[in-house]
Amino acid sequence: MLTSKQRAYLKSLANGINAIFQVGKNSVTPELRDTVHAALEARELVKINVLDNNLISAHEAAEMLASRTGAEVVQVIGNKFILYRPSKTKPVIELPKAKKS
């Protein structure tokens, strides 16, 4: 679970990247899940665009892909969303430490 500070940090990193995937009228397919899974392993942070002709909302697509890839939803704005999952082989993004209570 991401803290608000970690989420804000990831949002700032994602601000400069373009959406690399599009969820089209076929919704979340196994092929899309597999390519997003591979991209998360390589990049850790991906931005995805949901096309207007889709039957599901960006929130629904984000939750679906997050649960199917083991990622966390960082942000959903309009028809774009950001997913984060640390790489298992070589982590690139170092998150701010969470405060211990």
Summarize the model shown:
The protein is of the alpha+beta class and 101 residues long. 37% of the residues lie in helices and 20% in strands.
Describe the structure in your own words.
The chain has about 100 residues and is α+β, with helices and mostly antiparallel strands. The protein has one domain (about 5-85): Translation Initiation Factor IF3 (2-Layer Sandwich), CATH 3.30.110.60. It is about 35% helix and about 20% strand. The protein is built from 3 helices and 4 strands, in the order αβαβαββ. A 4-stranded mixed β-sheet has the order 1-2-4-3, sandwiched between helices. Strand 1 (about 20-25), helix 2 and strand 2 (about 45-50) form a beta-alpha-beta unit. The longest helix has 14 residues, at about 30-45. It starts with a helix and ends in a 17-residue tail after the last strand.
Query: Would you tell me the structural class of the helices and strands?
Result: alpha+beta
Q: Using the coordinates shown, work out and report the CATH topology.
A: Translation Initiation Factor IF3
Quantity of strands, as a count: 4
Our count of domains comes out at 1
Q: Major β-sheet, in short? A: 4 strands, mixed
Give, in order, the helices and strands. HEHEHEE
* Overall mean pLDDT: 92
Alpha plus pi helix count? 3
CATH homologous superfamily annotation: YhbY-like
Second CATH tier, the architecture: 2-Layer Sandwich
Tell me, what's the shape?
globular
Q: State the separation between the terminal residues, measured CA to CA.
A: 15 Å
The first-level CATH class is given as: Alpha Beta
Integer-rounded radius of gyration: 13 Å
Low confidence ranges: none
β-sheet strand percentage: 15-25%
List the strand order in the largest sheet.
Answer: 1-2-4-3
Helix content: 25-40%
